[in-house]
Every structure is written in structure tokens, then in C-alpha cells.
Amino acid sequence: xxxxxxxxxxxxxxxxxxxxxxxxxxxxxxxxxxxxxxxxxxxxxxxxxxxxxxxxxxxxxxxxxxxxxxxxxxxxxxxxxxxxxxxxxxxxxxxxxxxxxxxxxxxxxx
Length: 110
What we know:
The protein has 110 residues and is of the alpha+beta class. It folds into two domains: 1-36 and 77-110, CATH 3.30.1390.20; 38-74, no CATH class. 30% of the residues lie in helices and 22% in strands. The chain contains three helices and five strands; from the N terminus they run E-H-H-E-E-E-H-E. It has helices spanning 24-34, 38-53, 91-96, and strands at 12-17, 56-59, 66-69, 84-88, 104-108. A hairpin with a 6-residue loop joins strand 2 and strand 3.
């Protein structure tokens, strides 16, 4: 396990949740970090495309005002125990990691 302070900006890191987060803020931070994984980004784009295709419009109040209805967003990352992702250690990632370091295992990817 690499020390978080020793990570350089721009390196690829693997982040794995090894302990259940104890607060909502920690869960949100983990979701935000794991959402930077390219596979999760692609899944979010796929879901957005499906939601755009299946949206429908209807009149509201019998007038010309249009009411758009869309499917609810599906979240591929929940911040649960065992989830992992490979992300680039950017400045914002390196600032977020110390607040959740007790819940994650961070390793550098070669």
C-alpha cells in the first residue's frame, strides 16, 4: 500500500474500499472518487443515452407548456464495501484521499 502523501500528481492509482464508510460525507467522497474511473464514466454515458432516448413530453394543464419526463438516473457506484476503480491521481483526488484513507486501500498502478 502506497502512502497517500507520496503519490505524485498524474500517476494512476487503484482505490479499493476495504471498510464500510461511517458517515454520509465519506460515502459521497468515495462515490465522487470512484466515479472518475473510465469504466464508470462510460457506464454513466450509456445510461444518459438511454434516458435521453426514452424521455417523453406531454402537455401540462391542457396548455402549450411542455412537461418533460425522464427516467431516474442509475448510479453505477454506490460507495459500498469491495468496490474499486483505477483513477488518475489529480490534484483534487489527492486532496480528497486523506479524508477517507481509513476506508480505502490505495495502490499505485504500474
